[in-house]
Amino acid sequence: MSRFSRFVLIIGALSGLSLLGLLAWSTGNASRFAHYYDALLLLNGIFALALLVWVIGLTSKLIRQIRRRQFGARLTARFSLAFALIGVVPGALIYTLSVQFLSRSIESWFNVRVDSALDAGLNLGRAVLDTQLADLSARARTMASGLNNLSDSDISRALTRLRENSGVQESMVFTSSGRMVAFSTNRYGQLLPAMPPSTVMNQLKLTGGYSAAEASDPASPGGDSTLTLRVVVPLISPERFDGNLLGTANETRWLQLVQPVPDQLARNANRVQRGFSDYQELALSRLGLRKLYGITLTLALLLAMLASIAVALSLSKRLVRPLLRLAAGTQAVSVGDYRPLPEPPERDEVGQLTRSFNAMTRQLDEARRMVESNRLQLERSNVYLESVLANLSSGVLAFDEGFRVTTINQGAQTILQADLRSVIGRPLETVDNMLEFANLIRQAFSEHAAVGSERTHWQQQFELKRAPGEATILLARGTHLHVDDRGNGYLVVFDDITEVISASRTVAWGEVARRLAHEIKNPLTPIQLSAERLAMKLADKLEPTDAQMLARSTNTIVNQVGSLKKMVDDFREYARTPPAVMQRIAFNSLVADVLALYGWEAGGGEGPRALNLDVHLEPDLPDIEGDPTQLRQVIHNLLSNARDAVAEQGEAGKVKVSTQLVEGRPDGERAVRFIVADNGPGFAAQVAQRAFEPYVTTKAHGTGLGLAIVRKIIDEHGGRIDLANRKEGGARISILLTRLAASPA
20 to 30 A Cα–Cα from 468, which one of 319, 436, 525, 642? Predict the structure, then answer.
């Protein structure tokens, strides 16, 4: 609640209290209240108007919040309505009863019996005073008869005696001019008497006497005014007798007697007099009193109602604010915001609830951090596992119990040469060209389950047909996954063993070549010698025609034996490659020497027999360790194949040769890469997978041992060779030589 709101509420409360105080005051002194009533009514009306404006503002704001569906507005409205009813309904009930009570009470004040009683009391008081005043007048006349015709000096001596005999409190003789002749009193503290007031002197001149009860100043000590009886009678001067004047007439002398009325009688008379006066005043303003009380009560009710509504609205907002804060905190928690709420200083249930909510959010935040930490750890584990699977050369496929694909890796897509990213959640058969592989896997799992093997996995070799003359050989292993003794899917791991099979074939061909070379070479020499001896022995003994036929036949036999010997030498060279003699080699120089045989010169010129060569030899290439003879044979063989590949293109044929240093390998070592590329027709699909196998060739006169020998040499040098077709056309062979020569000391 703002300071202004608090100030307005305090002013409203003070105004209500002031109205109640003035209402109580009005029952004792209506005239005095009426003197300030207009100002108070105006002031309280201003306060009521201010409260009304404030209530309207708060209500309008609450209505706008409800229309905007702001959270907590309806709860605030319910609280406000409940509090307002609690404050307004009792106030309205009390107001109705009060108005009825006041109307009936005011009417009961002015009945006939009260009027007669007050009038009788007033007459009784007057009769008592008249009786005492008549008694005092009789005493005055008695004393006057004893003081007549006495001189001034005799009057002074006789006055005290007569006063004491009469039992009067004070007596005085004075002249018409105001001169005191004699004075006597029983109050010894009074030195000089007070002369009669001018009103009394004037009445003496007119009526020749005075008799009345006088009231003293009401502000005198005691609170109530006192009554005093005053009687003045004339005295006969000594010069006047028998009605005839003997000389000059003297001033008229007067005898004054003053006797106080008893205090109890005076107080009762005063009270009766005031009560009668007030009653007459109230009787005259009866309708005004009813309006006065009605307006006062109405204004008090209005202020109380407005103040209660304002307090209800403000108090509702104050009570609902912690609940709204808790609700906002709950909504924040639902979106992951676990910041603690400000705790109220009050030690009530709402404060306890807020502290409990903060404790809960701290626990949730801690649990969220733990879950987030576990999630990050799991994600790191998954990322690591995905990285391992992605970089795994083997293919990995995971299926659920319905044989729908759940996990694949890049190795599986590479081996199967298919994009399997869209197959997640679907059977493998839905991918093009995967029906055969999916059926083989299902059949393998079915046979493994049917045979009841003790082994947890099966292993089979599959051959997938890619294209006419192209096949991929896969070695697959599969297992049924179990979690808590329940089936959780299937896992298949497979490898492309086409190259392994090719290597096995190479070894087999090497053994076959060795045995063929041994078995064929032994009879070739006797056959050749026998044919030569037949030609030599029979040449002179036969007819010329027969001799020519013999010569042709023996030449044919000798030539074919020579061809067989060359084939045997190739077999022997493939099967029995001499061990490499490792030495330090400047590889760029070795490549340049072989390129020179094809017309390329290191200075940049080209001979007349030069190929259309694009040569890039990286400078400062480190030396390698290898057998220069075997590596020269490798370079020569690759250049020869590239030359044959671009022979039909004429001048458009181009061969690219390059060397470069490779750094940043996973093992941290460096290597030398040698690349030979051409823009020829490239490798046929059926040849590309078996290019390194013996007797695989597309040349009409080739033996198919060239690339097989190249691979064998590179393997013996600890290197790697890669063969592929270029995207822009042609073939590309890349050789990686990993054995670098040590730096010279």
Answer: 642
